[in-house]
Structure formats: C-alpha cells, structure tokens
Design a protein that fits this description.
Elements (H helix, E strand, L loop, with lengths): L4 E5 L5 E6 L8 E4 L5 E4 L5 E5 L5 E5 L93 E7 L4 E6 L8 E8 L2 E6 L4 E4 L11 E6 L7 E2 L16 E8 L4 E7 L8 E9 L2 E5 L3 E4 L6 E11 L2 E12 L5 E9 L11 E8 L6 E8 L8 E5 L6 E8 L5 E7 L5 E3 L3 E2 L5
Antiparallel strand pairs: 1-2, 3-4, 4-5, 5-6, 7-8, 8-11, 9-10, 9-12, 12-13, 14-15, 15-18, 16-17, 16-19, 19-20, 21-22, 22-25, 23-24, 23-26, 26-27, 26-28
Length: 430
C-alpha cells in the first residue's frame, strides 16, 4: 500500500466508504470469514477492520493483552497472504500518537493461536428478508358464450317514388352472431327477397297515384327478425306532353261549304291536367274545350289538326297533334256547242244551242247562268240550273250564232259564289 486509506467499491466501481487506517509498519492481512465478510488485520496487530458485504466498514480495536486470532475460523484469503503481524500486536494504539500506549519492549513473536473467531464486537449482518412470493393476478373468468339469435330490425328504411315503381333502401340489421342471409321487402300487393349484402332494391309494377309503405325484415341462420317500415310514397308518372287525340274525323258540307271535325281525349295526358284543345285548318286556328269544331268557307280539299294542351308543374305543355282531311272536289261548269236552232238568233242559219253542264256543285241548289261573248253581239239572256243531291245539273238556256267568237258561262250560287265555265270558240253549223 502507498497510503493509509481503505476504500470500498460497489459492483459498478462506485466508492461506497473510505477509512483512514492508523500508521503501521508492514502490510495488513486480509482474510475472508465464513460469514463472507473481509477482516483486515493491522500489521502490528493493534486493530481489525471488518468489511461487510455491502461495503460498510467497522473498526474493531484490540485491547491490551487480547490475543488476536491469526485468522477467522474457516476463512479464506481473498488475496495472497501478506507478511506476519508486526511486534506490539495486541497493544492498543494511542489515539494521540497512533503508537502503542505503553513503551514495553516488543514481545517475541507469538505462536499462531488456535483458529478461533477473534474476540471482536461484530456487527450482525442485516437479516436477509425473503420477499413474499409473487402471486400472479389471474384474469377474470370468460363470460359465458351467448348463442346466436334472429337478427335485429333494419335501420333507416327509406322509400322514393318513381313512375309506377319505388326504390327502397335500408341500413344493415344486427346479425346477432349469425350471418344475415337475406332481406325481405313487403308491401300491399307483393313482396320480394334480396341477398343479405343488399341494402337497396327497386320495386316495379306499382300503380301510379296509389300510396305504398314498405316493411323490411332480415333473416339469418336462426330466423327472421322484426320489421322496419318505410315512409309512405305515391308513384307518379313524370310530366310529359300529352299523346295525340284519338278517333279524329272531318266531314265536308258542300251545301254551306263547312267542314266539321271531331275527336276523343288523348289516352295519356302525360301526368298533366287537360286545359283545352287547339284546332287549325284553312288558315285559321281556334281554341275549344269541346271535342268538335266547325270550319267555314271550305270549298277545297283541306287538312285539319287538333292537339291537347295540359297544365303541368312546369307550365302549359302542347301535346302531340292528330289530323283529318276533307276532300272537296271543286264544282265545274262545262259548255259546248249544241244542236242548231231557229228559235233564237232572228233566223240566223248559224244559230245553235249552248249546252251547260254543272258538276260537283252544291247539291240541290239553283244556279243562275249568265253567258258572255267576245263578239259585237251579246247574249242578253240568262238561264238557271238546279243541281241534284250530287251537285249536278244540265241546261240549254240560250243559243248563239257568230262564228269565231268565244263564249263563256258563269254559274252563280245563291250565296253569290260564282263558277266560270270553259272558253268555247263558236263554229259554223253549215
């Protein structure tokens, strides 16, 4: 040793305690006792330092006359033994000088004493308290297994109306530990089943204008659960133009030159409400709420149309048109040179009758006939012709005689309507 300082360390090399030893000649002796403590004997035998297992130091002085055991019983040297204890062993050191208290001469070396525990007041090592056994906390017992049961009710069932249909949707039902195999949708008049992973379906074939509610139930491997009911919905057709009127007819009255049209309501009003009809023909258009209409002054072939007008949420909508045609054949006046006659023309040998034929004129109507000539001699006579039910008649009301002149005849109806004949160039009768 180079200093008189005793230092103990723990297992990590950290200083536990330190103690200054009394000055002495020679090296101390270190011995490990049966109690696993280290005993450090001073070289002069005047003191013993005990090192506990935790590094604590205990100084045990040796009184005068005490015989210090050379080695604790059963001890083992922790290191190579140091030299034999020095003289003055067993004499306590003076606290002032650090030397033996008496000046007696050093006794002769003593024979080693029996291997007994030195009479040292020893510190009882701390009692090793055995910790109580660790008792692992056992987990609580598992709850009993609940058997599967029928599913719960579907959630948030909603229905949306369509055209003669409805779309039904729902949230999934609780499966209650058994997979859902299907959903059943029921309504007044029918039901349908969809797979267990479906959450919507379209229900077709409903009646527009009828209100429906839908009940949805879920089924699993155990059974069928309670139902959930949707909101009420009323399917309706979307608004669109009305279809064309049906049974459309038109007839012509030659006697008064009118045409009468008739029809029936459209089969489909397009979801709207019928307001009126619009009819047109012969350059005129009229509105009527009835299902017949008469047109005036129809003297030729004419096509008539009719359409329905409906009221919808988006306003008035014109529907499709239907039509009918009246074929009016124009009346004709045809003249030709007739047989010679001496009844008129003041005995002129070129005199002959003028033949007049009316065709497709007003039936049962008396026409006034007037002749026009291009020559210097006019025909100052008039005649008449009354048509039959077919609008036809013929007459020879006057005669003419000037060769090379042009003759025409006009037929006037009672209403003032006139029809002009063809042009006839007069020829010689000889």
């Amino acid at each position: 040793r180079t200093t008189n300082m005793l230092v103990t360390y723990d297992a990590q090399g950290v200083v536990q305690q330190s103690k200054e030893l009394p000055p002495d000649k020679g090296d101390p002796r270190l011995t490990r006792g049966e109690d696993d403590r280290i005993y450090i004997d001073g070289a002069s035998g005047e003191h013993v330092v005990v090192v506990d297992r935790d590094g604590d130091l205990t100084d045990v002085p040796i009184k005068d006359g005490d015989v210090k055991p050379a080695k604790p019983t059963g001890g083992k040297d922790p290191e190579t033994p140091v030299s034999t204890p020095k003289p003055d062993a067993g004499v306590p050191a003076s606290p002032d000088t650090g030397k033996p208290a008496t000046s007696q001469p050093n006794p002769a070396p003593r024979p080693p004493a029996a291997q007994t525990q030195p009479p040292v007041t020893q510190t009882t090592p701390p009692t090793q308290t055995t910790p109580p056994p660790v008792v692992e906390e056992q987990p609580p017992p598992a709850p009993p297994v609940v058997p599967p049961s029928p599913p719960g009710a579907p959630t948030v069932v909603n229905a949306t109306a369509g055209d003669a249909s409805a779309t039904v949707s729902w949230g999934p039902a609780a499966d209650n530990r058994s997979a859902i195999t299907g959903y059943t949708i029921t309504w007044n008049g029918g039901q349908t089943t969809v797979p267990g992973n479906a959450q919507t379906t379209v229900v077709p074939g409903l009646a527009n204008g009828t209100t429906y509610t839908f009940t949805v139930t879920a089924t699993n491997g155990v059974g069928t659960g309670p139902g959930a009911v949707s909101n009420p919905v009323t399917p309706t057709a979307p608004t669109r133009p009305a279809s064309a009127p049906t049974n459309v007819n038109a007839s012509h009255n030659r006697a008064n030159s009118t045409a009468t049209m008739s029809w029936a309501q459209p089969a489909d009003l397009g979801g709207g409400t019928l307001l009126h009809y619009v009819v047109s023909g012969n350059g005129q258009e009229s509105v009527t709420t009835g299902q017949t209409f008469t047109f005036n002054n129809i003297t030729s072939t004419t096509t008539f149309t009719v359409r329905a007008v409906t009221q919808t949420p988006n306003g008035q909508v014109d529907g499709a048109s239907a039509s009918a045609t009246v074929n009016v054949v124009a009346g004709t006046v045809q003249i030709s040179q007739g047989a010679p006659t001496q009844e008129q023309c003041a005995g002129d040998p070129e005199c002959a009758w003028v033949n007049v034929v009316l065709t497709n004129m007003l039936p049962n109507t008396s026409y006034t006939l007037t002749a026009q000539v291009s020559g210097p001699t006019p025909i100052n006579q008039t005649g008449s012709c009354t048509t039959d039910a077919n609008g036809s008649c013929s007459a020879t009301p006057f005669a003419y005689h000037e060769e090379g002149q042009t003759v025409t005849v006009t037929a006037r109806a009672p209403d003032g309507t006139t029809t002009r004949s063809n042009n006839l160039v007069w020829e010689s009768v000889s």
